[in-house]
Each structure stands twice: as C-alpha cells, then as structure tokens.
Amino acid sequence: MVQFVVDVLIRAVDLALIAIGLSSVYSLIRFPNVALVQYATTGALLALGLQMAGLPLVVAAIAACALVGIIAVVLNVVVFERLLRAGSAIAMVGSLALSMVFSAIFLVTAGPRPKRFELEINPPLRFLGARLTEHQLISVGISALAIGVFALILFRTDLGRCMRATATNSVLASATGIDTRKVTNTVVFLSGVMAALGGIGLSVKGEMSAQLGLDMLLPVFAAAILGGLGNALGAAVGAVVIAAAETMVTNVNFGPLFGESVLFIPAAYATAASFLLLVVVLLIKPYGLFVSEVKRV
Amino acid sequence: MFEFLIHVAIMACLYGLLSLSLNLQVGFGGLVNFGQVILFGCGTYGAAIAFSHQLGPVAGIALGIVFAVVVAAAFARLGRNLGADYWGIATLAVAEVLRILANNEAWLTGGAQGISGIPLLFGDMPRPMGPLMTLGLCLVLLLAAWWLCQRLTTSRYGLALKLMREEPQLAASLGYDLAALKTQTLMVAAVLAAASGFVFAHYITFVGPDQLVSSETFLIWAMVIIGGSGNHLGAIVGAILMQFLFAFVPFVKDALGLPSEYVAAMRLTLVGGGLLAFLMWRTQGLIPERIGGKQNG
After folding, report:
1. Cβ-Cβ contacts under 8 Å, B82 against chain A
2. Does the beta carbon of B269 lie under 8 angstroms from any beta carbon of chain A?
3. H/E element holding A118?
4. Which site among A98, A248, B182, B224 is 20 to 30 Å from A62 CA-CA?
C-alpha cells in the first residue's frame, strides 16, 4: 500500500507541474497550449546538454528551466499573440504545429536514441517498506516544492492577485490598471519553467527521448481537464487521479474480482486507462471536476 | 519512376478523400476533430478483419463503414456539450485508446504485427495495369466524394453547417438542432474516411496500428489548412501538394547526403512549419473559401 502511494506520488508530481502550467496559462489566454509538453522535453534536453558541457546537474537544471521560460515567452509574443487574434481553435492547431517543429528539432539535435542523465547509482532506500531511490526522493521533493511555491505566488503575492484578476475578467483587470499582457507573459514564463522542471524530473527518474513530450501530451491534458482547465490547483488534483489510475491498472491484481488467482491488465493499457478516465469524465462533467467557469455552447 | 509516380498519385487521392472528410468537419462545421485518423483506421481494419475471417471485400467495406459510423456517433455524443478545445482533446484521446486496443487485442487485429496479405483489388491484372486500375478507382472515388461534398455544402444544409461554425448560439436560436447537425456531418465524413481506408488496405495489403498514429491526423490537418479550409478544391489541392512534397523528401536527403532521421525531421518540419506559416500569414489557405450561397465552392 505504501509502495502504491509512493509510486503514485512519483508519477503525479511531474504530471502536476506540467498540468498546472497548462491550466494557469489557459486561465489567462483561453487556449490549451499543446506545445507546452514539448517545452518539457526541451528543458530535459537542454539540462542534459549543459551537464555534458561540464556544469553540475543542479546548475544545468536551473539554467535549462530559465532558458525554457524565456523560449516560452518569446514564442508567446511572436506566435501565439498573433494566432489568438484568429481565435482559440486556430491557436490550438498552431500550438500543435509548433510542437511538430519541436519534434523535428529534437530528432536532428538529439537523435532518435533515448538518453540518460549521468547519475551515480545508489541502492534504493527503504521507507515504511516502500522502495525508492535517492534521486527519486530529491526530484519529487523539488517538484513538490515548486508546486508549493507556485501556489504561494498565486494566493499570497500581488502578482498572484493580478493573475487571478486577469483570469476572471481581463477587460476589468486592465481597466483597473493591471498590465494584463505583462501578467500573461509572466505566467507563460512560469509555465515554461514548470514544464522544464517536470521534464527534467521525468528524465531523472527514467529515460529521456525525443518522444518524452508527446507521450506526456494526453496524461497532462487529462490531468488539466479533470481539474477543470483554467483551475491551476485543480490540475494538481487531476494529476494525482491520473497517476493513481495508471498505477492501479498496472499494479493491482484483479484476479479475485473474477474468481482467478492472478489477473493483471497488460501494462500497455496504463495510458489507455487515463485517456478513458478523461473521456468518461468529459461525458459526465464536461468541464472537469472543479468547474469555475460558465458553460459555453 | 513511372510506377513510383502512380503510387504517389494513388496515395494523394486517398489522402484527398481524408482531407475532404476533415474539411467537411473543420472547414464547414467548425468541428475540431483531432481523431480523424481513427475513422480511416475503421476502414482499414474493416477490410483486414473481413479478410482474416474469409469474408469478401464487400463485407470488408460494410464492416469498415459500420465501425466508422459507430466511432463518429461516439465522437458526436462526446461533442454534444463540449467546447471546441475540450472536444479536440477528447477525440485525440478516443483515437489513442482505439489504437492501443488495436495494438493489444491480437485475437482480432493481429496486434502490433497487424494483418498482412490482404489481396490487391486488381491483383490478377498484369503489372502496370493493376496499379493504374487502382488509381482509376481512387480518382472515381475522389470525384464522387467531391461531388457529394459539393452537393451537401451548397444546399441549405451547408448553410446551416456554416451558421453552426460561425454563430452556434444564433443557429440554435433559429431552431437548428446542433447535436443532430454535428452527428450527421461526422457520419458523412466517417464514411468518406472509411472508404479511403478500405482502398488503402487493399492497395498496401497490410494493416497495422502504426498506420494510425496521431501524427497522421496532423498531416491531414496540414493538408486542409494549407489547401484552404472551407473549400473542397483547396482540401484536394492541399492533399496532392503535401503528398508529392513528402514523396520527394527522401531524394532531397540523398542529394544532400544526410542521415536517415532527417527524412522524418524534414517531413515533420514540412507539416508543422507549413501549418504554422499558413495559420500565421495566410489563414484562408491557398484556395480561400468562397463566401456566398449557390456559387460557394
């Protein structure tokens, strides 16, 4: 049971980081940015490149996060502000196109083969009977800390108040003197940083490949939609639900339910479980579990 | 070289069908379908499953159309009360779940190896005639589909679709049943896509889950947007253009002496970059939609 909780947490934190980024940007500019999952891969690849250039991993990771944040802002100003004038569906298709260009860049720069960070391998620690490695512990800690910091920014600072005001009513917010464009770009920067951190966290715990981002696309969207797109902390809850569903499908023995001793669902269905969950939730509660907006046609 | 050109032309026609089908949904109905490839997959697997159960090709096309219509009905049920962005993600999720199913349920679909040995449609003809006959059949299908789409969209029905795209609330207030409109559009589009899949299965003689990855959907999207969404001729021109560009990428790679991952990267750049460029600078595409009643092309 403890192992189950630990596995869920390990999976959930990185999902949550990217999903929160997605959701908070959505709350401001009303379109889900598909390219965000590619920012995660960019972060991981940049961190790897900087580490290979001789920087210690921590410095490389911080630099990569900052760089990805800047890339996110530049792309928002150059591409998405223009696309959004044509409508949110156009902007969404545009973000898809952008993420394909990212894939092409990854293929050419990093090659199709998976890579790993250079980390020393330690024996796993024991925690209440659950196995986890030191790297997993540190990475989960950092990601959880980042989520906490983001929540603090959102609810305890002036910037957070401006963000929430802009999300609720951007016309009124700019009438009261809030520079909504600056607020949006700040949030886009933060979302890039969180996505990069999530990508680095994922690849510290496993392998990193050019496919990393696209493999995360549906789980991240499932988490964000479950939490209600635009509701940043709902996305964190959504991530836990998705991670729990994925872990349950692969780790739980369904045998006793069907009168057999051992019955496991094939591991390939782990991702399918989260997508199915997404579809079912959309059927029952079309705007996610925690809705904060008026229903549209 | 001649046979290669015929091959490219056949593929261009099959993609032209898919592009017409997506154009009907996106260009006219404003339905952001990111699961288009699975409608095509219904056609291919319909043909393949009929073949592996020793049923004739007539059963194959019937099976494919039934599959496709069922999936389209599911998409439409999901889309009944979802915003465009949510629905796009939901269709993507459904398509992925179905692809994972096809990949794992080996008793029905042959699993990852797929089903091979599906007979050619004109297999008993001498060598250059068989492909030529297939090309003829594809052209006839494409023209028939074009005529059908043209008839549909120049009628009052087409105007209702456009009204639904532009002003859904107004359309609802005028008494149009939006849910029924969406369902009918999706079903017509699904039949076109399934027909394309059926011919594809009998031409390539192999059907597998790798043909149904979501990047295929985005390729069809690129065809529609670059050709001109809301214009049937545009959709066909986009398909032919992209297909011929794709076919010549390997030659460019050989001429420049690049490694083989550049083929994938160049194709991704063509699709993603082309899509993005058109969205940003020429949203109406190569052949813009014509506004107006009867002359509407």
Report:
1. 282, 286
2. yes
3. none
4. A98
Residue B7: pLDDT band with limits 50, 70, 90: very high
pLDDT at B74 over 70: yes
| Predicted-complex ipTM score | 0.87
Mutate which of A41, A101, A226, A289 to disrupt the B interface (most B C-beta within 10 Å)?
A101
Asked whether the beta carbons of residue B32 and residue A269 sit closer than 8 angstroms, the reply is no
Among B23, B71, B85, most A C-beta atoms within 10 A, so best to mutate, is B85
Which of B81, B97, B222 lies closest to A275 in CB terms? Answer: B97
Q: Which amino acid is at A46?
A: L
Residue B169 to residue A276, Cβ atoms within 8 A:
no
- Where are any strands of DSSP class E within chain A? 125-127, 130-132
User: Amino acid letter at A266?
Assistant: P
Beta strands in A48-169 (DSSP E): 125-127, 130-132
Pairwise CB contact (< 8 Å): B221 & A99: no
SS3 A205: helix
The whole-angstrom distance between residue B253's C-alpha and the CA centroid of its chain comes to: 27
pLDDT in the model for residue A297 = 34
Report all structural domains of chain A as residue ranges with CATH numbers, in order of start: 2-116+130-284 (1.10.3470)
Q: Report domain extents, chain B.
A: 2-212
At B294 the pLDDT is: 53
Our separate counts of H helices and E strands in chain B read: 12, 2
Residue A177, classified by CB atoms within 10 Å of its CB into exposed (0-12), middle (13-18) or buried (19+), is: exposed
pLDDT in tens, A73-132: 999 999 999 999 988 888 999 999 999 999 999 988 887 788 888 777 777 777 767 777
Q: Report CB contact under 8 Å: A31, B82.
A: no
Which amino acid is residue A220, in one-letter code?
V
